Amino acid sequence: MRTWMLLTLSIASLTLATAQNFGVIDERRIREESNYVKAINQQLQAVQARFVQALQALQESPVLNTEERDTLFNLLLKENPTEAERQQVQQLINTARQRAAELATLRQKSELSETEKTALERFTQMEREGRENLQVRAQQLEQQLQQQFQQQREATEKRIREIVAQIAKEKKLVMVFSSDVVYYAENDITSEVIKRLDAQQPNQRR
User: Fold this and answer.
1) CA dist 10 → 3, 20, 188 (Å)
2) Would the pLDDT of 202 be above 60?
3) What is the DSSP secondary-structure string of 127-163?
4) Is residue 134 within 8 Å of 97, Cβ to Cβ?
5) Are the C-beta atoms of 85 and 75 separated by less than 8 Å?
6) DSSP state, 133?
7) What is the signed CA dihedral for 107, 121, 90, 134, rounded to 10 degrees?
8) 180: confidence class by pLDDT, cuts 50, 70, 90
9) How far apart (Å, rounded) are the C-alpha atoms in residues 176 and 166?
10) For the packed helices 190-198 and 35-60, what is the interaxial angle rounded to 10 degrees?
């Protein structure tokens, strides 16, 4: 009986000692509380907002030639445009609106001069190409945005794993679990992970 009790106590002590070498992190808390993660999300949201603005401007300004359309699009995607660039954007939008108004007027006329026929054909072609180009650019921007989200997610996860590994070595933890599958653990290192993660500078994404 005494031998059995000693064996039981030994197993319990070993289990406790082993448990103390395990750690846990709450990934939900990291996503919700980390300023680093919030900054990354804000960067991506700003990129997405510029993409939406650029597509909306192209949708509302289809009567531009290829060079004008490319210039407008590239300027609208800039994070910090200069005053001169903002004025150029407005000029291109005004040009497109003026042409759209002329196109509408020409389409309502029953008889057109040769000059007017040429203008009608030219503006109609611009409009058609602008509509077609909008679909292509929308797909390109969607792919680009998804790629940036994926890259930032992978980079953040990599940084978190590196920080967890550092803390685990310092605390001599043999394994760190996610709180999604652990109901209780004394060695919760989530706050320390958030602290060290927030000490990092997020990479700038355009």
Assistant:
1) 11, 15, 26
2) yes
3) HHHHHHHHHHHHHHHHHHHHHHHHHHHHHHHHHHHHH
4) no
5) yes
6) H
7) 100
8) confident
9) 11
10) 60
Provide the CA 187 distance to its chain's centre, in angstroms. 33
CA dihedral over 140, 144, 146, 150, signed as positive or negative = positive
- The amino acid sitting at 111 is E
Q: Is 88 exposed, middle or buried (0-12, 13-18, 19+ CB in 10 A)?
A: middle
Q: Which of the 8 DSSP states describes residue 86? A: H
Please compute, for residue 79, the number of CA atoms within 13 A of its CA located in the half-sphere on the CB side.
9
- Among candidates 131, 134, 104, which has minimal Cα distance to 119? 104
Return the structure tokens found at 64: 């531009």
What's phi and psi for 178, nearest 5 deg? Answer: -85, 140
Based on its alpha-carbon atoms, the radius of gyration of the chain, rounded to whole angstroms, reads 30
The bridge status of strand 175-178 relative to strand 22-25 is: parallel
Number of H helices, E strands in the chain: 7, 2
3-state helix, strand, coil in the chain (%, to 5): 75, 5, 20
The pTM of the full predicted model, rounded to 2 decimals, is 0.73
Cβ-based neighbour number of residue 203 at 10 Å: 13
pLDDT tens digits along 150-162: 999 999 999 999 9
pLDDT in tens, 107-140: 999 899 999 999 999 999 999 999 999 999 999 9
Tokens of 26: 């709450």
CA distance linking residue 69 with residue 63, whole number of Å: 9
Residue type, 92: L
